[in-house]
Amino acid sequence: MTIASSGFVASYGLLWVLVLIQGLVLLGAVRKIYLLQRFGAAFDHAEEVEDRRGEKIPAFKVALADGRTLNSRELRGLGYALAFVSPDCASCSVSLDELRALELKAQGRVIVVCKSSKANCSGLADRFGITLPVVVDHDSSLSESLGVSMVPSAIVVGPDGRIRTVGAPVREEDLDEMIADEVAAEAVNATRPPAVAR
Q1: Is residue 160 part of a domain?
Q2: Residue 35: domain span
Q3: Which residues contact 23 (CB under 8 A, 6 or more apart)?
Q4: 144 or 193, which is more confident
Q5: What is the pLDDT of residue 135?
Q6: What is the domain-level CATH number for residue 163?
Q7: Which of 81, 108, 78, 107 is closest to 95 using CA atoms?
Q8: Among 26, 62, 117, 160, which residue has the least CB neighbours within 10 Å?
Q9: 27 vs 18, 40, 45, 62, CA distance in Å?
Q10: Are residues 60 and 89 in the same domain?
Q11: Do 28 and 56 belong to one domain?
Q12: What is the pLDDT of residue 119?
């Protein structure tokens, strides 16, 4: 092998290393774009609100699209999820399709928070066939009080009223964990002796 041919082999090898690095960078960019399309800006900014985990959820009283009101006191002792969406959010449609599939398992423990007018929120629920409670957050007051600025995103709250997760849309694993925790909490409460009045 001559010096000229060894230089050719070295440059050829270096070229393949550069192609491989460029491929990995491109793959990373494609993955990021996919996750942003799939989960919206909530994926990109989940780390900004992640430090809210463990905080007590603030009390709230909100209007539902069907005209009723929902008070956070009604949810005491239950695990639940707040799924934040908007009618004009393209990636929210994927989250809403998944929520519709999880409705039976959710047993009313998922609350859709729609960041729009009552008419738009009702239309959204009708369009996706959602029978879960739909909160009308037209002025974003609930979203802002919980630090949620992007959709789709979700907050999972444990039976103790503390925020468990913030960021990505509600997943089946979140519901399974919520239900398991409630069953465990009920078992602990059942083994406690009743309080005696003095």
Answers
A1: yes
A2: 3-39
A3: none
A4: 144
A5: 93
A6: 3.40.30.10
A7: 81
A8: 26
A9: 14, 19, 21, 43
A10: yes
A11: no
A12: 92
Residues ≥6 apart with Cβ < 8 Å to 83: 95, 99, 110, 111, 112, 113, 152, 154, 169, 170
Lowest mean pLDDT of 24-38, 94-108, 145-159, 165-179, name the range.
165-179
- Say yes or no: 94 and 168 in one domain: yes
Tens-digit pLDDT profile for residues 82-137: 889 888 887 787 777 777 777 666 666 788 999 999 999 999 888 888 888 899 99
**CB of 79 closer than 8 Å to CB of 178:** yes
Please say whether the beta carbons of 95 and 170 come within 8 A: yes
Angstrom CA distances, 89 to 68, 94, 95, 152, 170, stand at: 25, 10, 10, 8, 16
Distance CA(125)–CA(123), nearest Å, equals 5
The three-class DSSP label of residue 102 is helix
